[in-house]
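yo, Heme oxygenase (Staphylobilin-producing) is done. seq:
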Amino acid sequence: MYIAMNRFKVSPGSEAAFEQLWTTRDTHLKEVPGFVEFHLLKGPQKEDHVLYSSHTIWRDHASFDAWTKSDAFRAAHRNAGDNRVHYLGHPEFEGFEVVQTVK
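structure:
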């Protein structure tokens, strides 16, 4: 399994707009081979931002890599720069190979 995460530092007051943007968009993920599940996570609030993370689970790294090169990826990110959410910096990507899973 492979976990792909993007961390977003959202300016205070923009949380509702950020959540609306993510929860109403068409991700195109369900049609992508190797996709397992997606979570939008809301983290702690700091003085200058609220931390969010998009957390996607994939069958393997190759499936995630194929997604980033697909038409579905381009469609899902087509309007990424057209939002009114205020960020501090760019999203920070983190990718992880799963070493252990306990259920």
